[in-house]
Amino acid sequence: METWGWRWLLVFSALPLLFFAFSCIWLPESARYYMASGRTDMALKTLQKVARENGKILPEGQLVDKAVQNGQNRGSFASLFVPNLRNTTILLWFIWMCNAFCYYGIVLFTTVLFQSTDECHGGHSYNETINATSTECRPLMQADYFDLLSTTLSEFPGLIITATVIEFLGRKKTMALEFSVYSVFTFLLVFCLDRRLVTAFIFIARAFISGAFQCVYVYTPEVYPTTLRALGLGSSSAMARLGAIVTPFVAQVAAGYSLVTPIVIYGISALAGVVASLLLPIETKGRQMMESH
């Protein structure tokens, strides 16, 4: 990558996605979704296909949706703000925004820190450290790419830790814990550190913010009823995109004035995520998923 450039890095990063794009052709839609959408015929075809591929015979009878029997329809956007879900929706939107803001922020800010030639990030700007050695942007070296790869691999232990802890602490406390760890190790980047410690702290911060992202991915579908599940998850994901849109201005533009600015902003944002996670009114651990709102 040192000699090939960032364009080839993007090409190689995108190649694995082709596998998942083609695999979607063979992924069936869930029968439950078809029933909730009032498409009983498609739900029956899905169940027949499942039975056929498993060598089973589908039981005789007629598919009946209890929600339809009870006069319940698919939820609307306004249903996300019914009294028993209003606070949950607002807090979840904020948590998703914080998650994306902090996650993509540490990803982008990592390259800025690695390009900085000074070990004391609290008192210098990105532009100052670049201009101190050259009139041009300092390209990433082989060691930089190696450290970037190592911080990227941190997401694997982060997901494993999340999968383990989430069943003990519950969803809310797990998110709060992971936001807290991210905040602590982000704030530590303010101090004068050698390259190994910077890489280690970024590794830990990225592992836990990645875990927090996966935790909210688990929590959101669990907290919404079937009639609102897709809408709730989709709207929350849209809020995350807002955080992802804003974060480059902090990680790269604000770093041009002071490296401490992004560090403080990301640390405080994660602390706000801690508070929002603990304020969620519903803990979904061991809770039966609702069918309707």
TrEMBL record:
GO MF terms, alphabetically ordered: transmembrane transporter activity
Key word Transport present: yes
Signal peptide, first to last residue: none
Source organism of the structure: Steinernema carpocapsae (Entomopathogenic nematode)
Record InterPro entries: MFS_dom, MFS_sugar_transport-like, MFS_trans_sf
GO cellular component, one term: membrane
Ranges that cross the membrane: 6-27, 90-114, 148-169, 176-193, 199-219, 231-251, 263-282
Residue ranges annotated for the Major facilitator superfamily (MFS) profile domain, each copy included: 1-285
RNA-binding as UniProt keyword: no
Family: Belongs to the major facilitator superfamily.
Coiled coil: none
Subcellular location per the Swiss-Prot or TrEMBL entry: Membrane
Keywords: Membrane, Transmembrane, Transmembrane helix, Transport
Descriptive protein name: Major facilitator superfamily (MFS) profile domain-containing protein
Pfam families: Sugar_tr
Main location, first listed in the record: membrane
